[in-house]
Amino acid sequence: MPLRGFVTAIWILLASAAGFFGMVYLYQDRMLFFPQPAAAAQFTNLPGIEAVQITAADGVTLRGYLVLPSTPPPYPLVIYFGGNAEEVSPMVQLANRFPGHALLVMNYRGYGASEGKPSEAALTGDALAIYDYALAHSEIDGRRVVVMGRSLGSGVAVSLAAARPAAAVILVTPYDSMVEVARYHYPFLPVSLLLKHRFDSVSRAPAIHVPLLMLTAGNDAVIPKARSDVLFAAWAGPKTRLEIPGGEHNSLDAYPAYWTAIADFLRERSQVAARS
Asked: For the segment 184-209, what is each residue's pLDDT rounded down to a tens digit?
């Protein structure tokens, strides 16, 4: 091939690659976030459930629910952050799985009835507003807030636990960073250069000294086991891990051992708090 033709071919190849990578960069939000519409059922007619509306720092309105237990206040609280395709409102029907604790579930921006558009910066910033709302609630014990995140939400939960005091953290099918997860699934892409939403939990974990319960799936095809392993190893506080051998990424809550581990962990934290 003549030199001029070779150079032209190289430029065409580079332009094609740049176009492809540019498309990946522009569409990565659609690859990571899958906003779901509001659940058809409304839950405020159930006992102990309050509809919650929180105004974020930029004026966006977030909506969700707070479930209060039947025991006397002040209540310890679990704040739950869901997966990337999860409308969290139906979680209120599982509030009894968190014994003795109130449960606060707020939909991400663009999910359910919440306004706005999701991004890492928005979700992690909103988590601070959600936490601050909880601490201002007259019936919540601000010293006993447990932060829980599943899948994508594990990154939000870790970010919150690094920024605000938490009594404990529960992480379900978590990852060390979204960069490493993307690198596993797309080894042909320069993900470290392209990825906007990095959710770098592993860089925050060494500074978090509260107890951790990590729940992972033996057959997780979304989050590789190694990615959870790295995060678990980096965690600075006391830590417990349960891997459910037959579990898949989206099926852990179908296993009784999942809920037993959560209930036992919360009871243990309550006992520790009672002794202190």
From this structure: 988 877 777 778 899 999 999 999 99
> Is the pTM value of this prediction over 0.85?
yes
User: Which residues lie below 8 Å from residue 81, measured CB to CB, with a gap of 6+?
Assistant: 123, 127, 147, 148, 149, 150, 152, 153, 154, 156, 157, 160
Fold exhibited by the domain 36-275: Rossmann fold (3.40.50)
CA 138/CA 179 separation, integer angstroms: 40
Structure tokens at 141: 């014990």
Q: Among candidates 136, 139, 132, which has minimal Cα distance to 164?
A: 132
| DSSP secondary structure string for all residues of 218-262 | TT-SSS-HHHHHHHHHH--S-EEEEEETT--TTTGGGSHHHHHHH
- Structural domain spans, the chain: 1-32, 36-275
**189 is written with which tokens?**
């892409």
Of 98, 102, 105, nearest to 266 by C-alpha is 98
Rounded Cα distance between 215 and 244, Å, is 8
Omega before 74 cis (within 30°)?
yes
